[in-house]
TrEMBL record:
Protein name: Probable dual-specificity RNA methyltransferase RlmN
Function summary: Specifically methylates position 2 of adenine 2503 in 23S rRNA and position 2 of adenine 37 in tRNAs.
Keyword tags: 4Fe-4S, Cytoplasm, Disulfide bond, Iron, Iron-sulfur, Metal-binding, Methyltransferase, rRNA processing, S-adenosyl-L-methionine, Transferase, tRNA processing
Catalytic activity field: adenosine(37) in tRNA + 2 reduced [2Fe-2S]-[ferredoxin] + 2 S-adenosyl-L-methionine = 2-methyladenosine(37) in tRNA + 5'-deoxyadenosine + L-methionine + 2 oxidized [2Fe-2S]-[ferredoxin] + S-adenosyl-L-homocysteine; adenosine(2503) in 23S rRNA + 2 reduced [2Fe-2S]-[ferredoxin] + 2 S-adenosyl-L-methionine = 2-methyladenosine(2503) in 23S rRNA + 5'-deoxyadenosine + L-methionine + 2 oxidized [2Fe-2S]-[ferredoxin] + S-adenosyl-L-homocysteine
Presence of keyword Heme: no
Gene source species: Paenibacillus cookii
Entry EC number(s): 2.1.1.192
């Protein structure tokens, strides 16, 4: 039977678990020391633990549950990992290099039920949520990979922007953040962590009320309900007006800035009138919001969408600037590999299915 990864527990949760099983709470610190400072991958490499404590942990937990299936390395240093979970499902994790450090983009669900019409992740509906252990382990797998290269590199930033909708897996996503931000562990400061959501309004409010303290990004992608409903069906449940109210609630409650993500899709949402409408929508929030323009990564299955030209992106940017909106254009990473989120996974699943069908045909002949 498969065991959960111990990475999913905060140090307090582990201490409580150990106490329930008749061990001193303080041993949790020793385990964390082994996991995050020495970065061991087996309980047998924690000699400071009493043997009966080690055996107990081995009986109930694993450290590593993900297996590397494929790794694609881009010329710009971006590395895309495809991991196999214990149940055989595949997920993607991406390491990106920036001037300010190294970021890891993590997956939170196997597939996604939100089904945005431009996204490769939503091509396969959600089969399950990831546990917090499986999300933390993605970061640890990348950190261990970096350790193996012996360049003394450390994951410094996290973006929760891989496959899945993090706010549809709120509990595990929250626990993941509590584990990775702990100064006794990976110590990734909340300001170095960004969670992106397609706009689940009640969860944005819950997030604002929480103590998580990370950055928030909203996948807005349209200046009005007509366009947003056309490209993101979540807009039927949570249209722009309640979404903006939840954003205002977040801004007021947290006193932090917010990122509004906007994918530019040729002739769909990239025209000058769309930029003007977006500027008006951001309007009074301009001091606390940054619009991040995202060049579209084409996805074969969504051939109705094309990337906007460089000139169109510049014109859109200029219109926002003229309206005193803080705006940036997302730098692209790994354009020479299967860069769109979910693309590597969906290609692998398709090729596995084709191979399975071929094997079936051969067996029936
Ligand atoms: C994959 S989603 C995951 C987080 C969350 N589900 C969301 O939608 O914000 C992360 C970001 O990637 C964007 N995205 C999805 N497909 C894309 C594509 N083909 N090209 C560029 N960005 C894409 C999403 O719109 C979103 O802003
Ligand atoms: S953009 Fe986000 S919410 Fe939409 S389908 Fe992709 S992963 Fe899901």
């Amino acid at each position: 039977m498969s065991k959960p990864s111990i990475y999913g527990l905060t140090v307090d949760q582990l201490a409580a678990w150990l106490a329930e099983h008749g061990h001193k709470k303080s041993r949790a610190q020793l385990v964390w020391e082994g996991l995050y400072r020495k970065r061991v991958t087996a309980f047998s490499e924690m000699p400071e633990l009493k043997p009966e404590c080690r055996t107990l942990l081995e009986e109930h937990f694993a450290i590593q549950t993900l297996e590397e299936h494929t790794r694609q390395e881009s010329a710009d240093g971006t590395i895309k990992f495809l991991f196999r979970l214990q149940d055989g499902n595949l997920i993607e994790t991406v390491l990106m290099r920036h001037k300010f450090g190294l970021s890891v983009c993590v997956t939170t669900q196997v597939g996604c039920n939100i089904g945005c019409s431009f996204c490769a992740s939503g091509l396969l509906s959600k089969s399950r949520d990831l546990t917090s252990g499986e999300i933390v382990e993605q970061v640890m797998k990348v950190q261990l990979f970096l350790d193996g290269r012996q360049n003394n590199e450390r994951v410094s930033h996290i973006v929760v922007m891989g496959i899945g909708e993090p706010f549809d897996n709120f509990e595990h996503m929250s626990n993941f953040i509590r584990v990775i931000r702990d100064p006794k562990g990976l110590a990734i400061g909340p300001r170095h962590i960004t969670v992106s959501t397609s706009g689940l309004v009640p969860k944005i409010r819950e997030f604002a009320d929480s103590d998580l303290g990370t950055n928030l990004a909203i996948s807005l992608h349209a200046p009005n309900n007509d366009i947003r409903t056309r490209i993101m069906k979540i807009n039927r449940a949570y249209p722009i007006e309640p979404l903006m109210e939840a954003i205002d609630y977040y801004l007021e409650k947290t006193n932090r800035r917010i990122t509004l993500e906007y994918i530019l899709l040729k002739d769909v949402n990239d025209q000058p009138e769309h930029a003007q409408e977006l500027a008006e929508l951001v309007g009074s929030r301009r001091n606390l919001a940054n619009v991040n323009l995202i060049p579209y990564n084409p996805v074969d299955e969504h051939s109705q969408y094309q990337r906007s030209s460089k000139e169109t992106i510049t014109a859109f940017y200029d219109t926002l600037k003229k309206n005193n909106i803080s705006v940036s254009v997302r730098l692209e990473h790994g354009t020479d590999i299967d860069a769109a989120c979910g693309q590597l996974r969906s290609k692998q699943i398709q090729s596995d299915r084709a191979r399975g069908a071929k094997a079936n045909r051969a067996a029936n002949e």
